[in-house]
Write a structure and sequence with these properties.
By secondary structure, the chain is an all-alpha fold. The chain folds into two domains: 31 residues; 67 residues. The protein has five helices and no strands.
Length: 102
């Protein structure tokens, strides 16, 4: 318990920033009209490619005998890839609606 309190005491500014960013994010997203929800979410899914890069970096620095970390990294890469591909698919379908029909 002392370790947790020490960590919280040493990182109080970081905790304040995270809490404030949560409030700002909720306010910004709460004001978005329903029509724009799909384009924003598809863009956010595409940005999650950072998860893929992070998982690959973690897997590269993990010892070969740590099966749990490698398995979790693999799952993160697969799920991140699905998220990115899904984001681009939704964006592509949405943009198809604005093209003129032949």
């Amino acid at each position: 318990m002392n370790e947790i309190l020490t960590f919280l005491g040493e990182n109080m500014q970081m905790i304040y920033i995270i809490i404030l960013s949560i409030f700002v994010g909720v306010e910004v997203i709460g004001k978005v009209p329903a029509v724009l929800h799909t384009p924003l979410m598809s863009g956010a899914n595409a940005i999650h490619g950072v998860v893929i890069v992070g998982a690959i970096i973690v897997m590269l620095n993990t010892p070969a005998d740590n099966i749990l970390a490698l398995a979790l990294g693999f799952v993160a890469v697969v799920l991140g890839t699905l998220n990115v591909v899904g984001g681009f698919a939704v964006t592509d379908r949405m943009l198809e609606m604005f093209k003129k029909k032949k």
